[in-house]
Design goal:
With 168 residues, this protein is an all-beta fold. The protein has no helices and nine strands. Strands 1, 2, 5, 6, 7, 8 and 9 form a seven-stranded antiparallel β-sheet that branches. It has a two-stranded antiparallel ribbon with strand order 3-4. β3 and β4 form a beta hairpin. It starts with 8 loop residues before the first strand and ends in a 50-residue tail after the last strand.
Length: 168
């Protein structure tokens, strides 16, 4: 009798670096995994099945569509599996699951479907006072003065350092 190699996820850690997500999955046995992901929310298809002669309505299967896959960064079978997902768009949600091999044999195991949402909070290079939503406005250091914000008697002298296409 051939034993089919199986694995199970034990822990998942997810961190952000700007718009790049690093996902680390830990498993119970060494295996080699692929991360399957999509930006389309998976659909559940309800169906019935017969259990001990009785039709029950709680069976279901999931459609995981338009997916892409990425191989783990570590070579060979490992207990820790690292995946780096760059270039997330602002307010994008991705759904993902894991599948793989154990000792080179395709495993029937797969993970639950996870989701991750990127809210873009790390893309802000600066905050302008009129967009601040916090309790107190942040402290700002004056780097340059624009003519329309000058409240003095005589406007300051300005030197043109660069010309933007939309302002010429």
């Amino acid at each position: 009798m051939t034993i089919i190699p199986r694995w199970a996820p034990l822990d998942i850690q997810q961190t952000w670096d700007a718009n790049t997500a690093t996902i680390v999955l830990t498993t119970n046995v060494p295996c080699h995994l692929w991360l399957y992901y999509t930006t389309k929310q998976p659909w559940v298809h309800r169906q019935t099945r017969i259990v001990r002669g009785l039709t029950v309505p709680w069976d279901a299967y999931w459609c995981f569509v338009i997916w892409q896959k990425n191989e783990q960064l570590e070579p060979d079978d490992t207990l820790t599996h690292t995946f780096i997902k760059p270039d997330w768009k602002y307010c994008e949600t991705r759904w993902f699951c894991f599948r793989g091999t154990v000792e080179g044999q395709l495993s029937p195991s797969d993970s639950p479907i996870f989701s991750k949402h990127y809210d873009g909070k790390y893309l802000k290079a600066f905050i302008e006072p009129w967009t601040w939503l916090g309790v107190e406005p942040p402290e700002f250091t004056l780097h340059f003065t624009e003519p329309w914000t000058w409240l003095g008697v005589d406007p300051p002298e300005f030197t043109l350092h660069f010309n933007e296409l939309w302002s010429s």
